[in-house]
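Researcher: I'd like a structural prediction for the single chain below. Treat it as a standalone chain; there are no partners to consider.
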Amino acid sequence: MIDRNFDMTMLHHAQEYGTELASRDNQRDQDMDEFERMSKLKWAEEAALKARMPHVYITKSPDPRVAVQGVVRLLCSSDPVFHVKSEADVVTNDLASKLEKMALATWLAAGRVRSDPVHYDVVRSATIFDEIVIGVNNTKDMIEHFTGEMKEVYEEIGRYAPVLYDVYDPRKGHPDWDMAGLKAYYREYEMYAYEIIDSWGEYGEAAIGEHKVGYSKYDKFLVSDMYLRKSRCVWFTGSDRVIWQGDLEYGFIPIVSTLVQGSRLHDKPEDQRESFLYTMKESGLWKRQNLSLTSLYTNIAQLGLQPVLMYEPGMDEEEMPEVNTDGPVAVIIRPKGSKLEPWITKGLIDESAYRGMELAERKGGESTIYRQVLGEPMSGQVAYSTYALLGASGRLPLVVIQRKCSWAIADAVRMGLRMLRLRGGNYTATGESVYAELAGKDIPKHIEIEARLEMKLPQDQLAMANTANLLRRDQMVSKRWLRENMLQVENSDEMDDEIMQEEAEAAAYMMYVKSKIMTPPPQPQMPPGGMPQGGMPMMPGGAGGMPMQPGGMPMMPEEGGVQGLPGGMATGGMQGPMEQPGVTMGGGGEM
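Model: Treating it as a single chain, here is the predicted structure.
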């Protein structure tokens, strides 16, 4: 039997605290809903406009979605780069490299588990909601806490992902900070009955039985979850039925929560968040764009896409013209005295409407991000330096988002490594092409880890490579700094090993080629007591009796004799058939 004697005072405190936080964030949640609708191009006035004008052609400006997608594509163009600061007495270079590799491997592996890279949702949440919430879990804890088939699932996940990171919807959570950081986090979420049982085992099963008699495992319940600095309380929302209550296993809230472009200098939560779409929403630019585009295309569809005829009846005429289309040519029969002429629709749209739309589009770009930064070409002849300058300056609105996303990722990974250290044991992680092994006891108690999300574009890579080459040539910075800060190389030490391996392979190949060149060709064997084929007696040292130099080249004869012959023999002292004119050596014809 399990002990279900919970601290009701703690429960009531958590309920009051959570209700206060949720009520405080009510307007914040409404604003976040509006930002999400803008990013999905869901116009609030669309339904009312269609009801009032059934034949209207609703046309919405894509600017909010293009801006959000542009930020995500730029900041997610590469994976995070992790850097652990080396300290001679605590973290050696070798340990720092292992920690960096484990950080990257666990982050990528968690993305594989959720079938979506974690930093993609980090950037999306930062851009749309201006708030990032990341939950951190040790997979070994999940294996212990879960039962049934989910236990087997997490055992398989634990083979390659020792830490799981998940990005929460900020609207379903309510953080509270003080000078020491996050002091409380309250969440409300829905769970099926079987999920509650899988998550809390006997505690969950007993709680559901007390809360609802005759439940089905597919019944859905609303659950409240309050984290305090050292404790946690989970209960069914709107009741006093506790699911689980107790101290936090690791002694800290396993959640990273941070604002992005907003500030806690303001009192109200809705004023503390400033979404990337905040200016476009509060200025009303998006609504004006939608109205202008809808009006324009409705007029074009109704009046501009088909010919419009103006009919003026004659005196006392009530008949309408008849159109006969039976023949190859359409014939219009009009009553005598009436007039039928085309209505000129030129200038159907007032020029001021075009200017208004252009102004709204320009202001929309100024309030979010310039389209040229996302790859839109500029009109006319534009120098490459202009493109480069605009591309660099146009990314300034992304600096805060880039920095705060990097902070949140680094905090989450630091928290994950801390869990591995406190839990102990040996861990392996595999993320894409990164494999890492690390023992929990090797992780330092205090670790300084940094993460960077870089915008990795082809033109930037070329410029960075050239700049890095110049800095290294003048020996202004180290190779490690250049690789990590300019070339986005995740592990500098591993790169050194790869370079040395390539150089060793190249040197070994050159030695092999040189040995082949230096080896003399095989010499023909002298038959016992006879002449080699061709009739030329072989002298010691090689062809023609010439001794060989290293490399296979014959040595030149010394003055007054031939090397390799007895000293008394001069170069002209040999007489015999070999010197007879007109006779080839070896029995041929005349030369």
